[in-house]
Amino acid sequence: MVEARGLTKTFTRKKETVEAVKGVDIDVADGELVAFLGPNGAGKSTTLRMLTSLLRPTAGSATVAGYDVVRSPAEVRARIGYIGQGNAGGYSYRVGDEMRNQGRFYSVPTDVARTRAAELLEALELGGLEKRTVLSLSGGQRRRLDVAMGLMNHPGLLFLDEPTTGLDPHARANLWDHILRLREANGMTMLLTTHYLDEADSMAERIVLIDHGEVIADATPAALKRDHADDLVTLRLRAGDRADDSAARVAERARSVLPLGVNRAEDHLEDDGAVRLVLATNHGPDLVPPTLRALEAAGLAVESADVRQASLDDVFLNLTGRSLREEAA
Ligand SMILES: Nc1ncnc2c1ncn2[C@@H]1O[C@H](COP(=O)(O)OP(=O)(O)OP(=O)(O)O)[C@@H](O)[C@H]1O
């Protein structure tokens, strides 16, 4: 559905040059749901705007739904839906008019547009709001209207630029619910940008991590976490009463019986004399039972166990040395 090679965009303004996108390769197969994830200014929107033919690339090429974005922009636009950042611009327009205008923009015959608009508004829980002005809608309703408008031409491929930014958690979940249901019903391919880590993690089948205009990783959320981050299992062990049960001995005995699957182990002496053992692993939850069994069989008392699973922020941190969560904040 999408094939981009060496896609590049350089903005020049008042002698200042910004290399927004630096030679990006992207492939999206039919039916995939792919998220561009990256910090502010990484080049996500610029890439999306080139793929939707809204922005001409400085170099490189892209075909979308089988058409070249530079040579055949009209063919591309007829086959895609695009939901930009803060779309529903005509605030004084009525919801129904916005949908009709969108239909006209895509040359959808009037009677088809009427039926389609009604179906989409119903599917996005906006039924009955046709006569309301866009201005009077809540943030979540406005964003759902954006989605409805983006689907007026029944696209096989939908581009969403930060669809849930600015919405509260309830409205975000609700919007996702609707998007995924429509995707299911229509078999749409979807490409979206987001800086919500949790959203990318749970919704996207594949994540393209973008930083400083470059793709720094491209894989499923699970593979990214497996290859670029560790789960951490933290255990508190009690030093025994015997003379040779010093904290150092406890740590040493614990290390000697750890099961397979531990990438790294560190121990720390706590103020109260307990030993904190931190295990880095790719299989946090699965590692806990055999570890507990092994430690207990070795006569070591485990006071507590905690598992922190790898996150996409850990992945970004390990790849760039910066925290995406902190940059977003
Ligand atoms: N029209 C423009 N003129 C000049 N510079 C631009 C223009 N559009 C984008 N840029 C610059 O290009 C870089 C990439 O911007 P882009 O909007 O693609 O990033 P982004 O990853 O989508 O960020 P955000 O998450 O904040 O939307 C930024 O440095 C931005 O300032």
UniProtKB/TrEMBL annotation:
One GO molecular-function entry: ATP hydrolysis activity
Keywords: ATP-binding, Nucleotide-binding
Domain ABC transporter positions: 2-237
Keyword Nucleotide-binding among record annotations: yes
Alphabetical list of Pfam families matching this protein: ABC_tran
Transmembrane segments: none
SMART domains for the chain: AAA
InterPro entries: AAA+_ATPase, ABC_transporter-like_ATP-bd, ABC_transporter-like_CS, P-loop_NTPase
Name assigned to this protein: ABC-2 type transport system ATP-binding protein
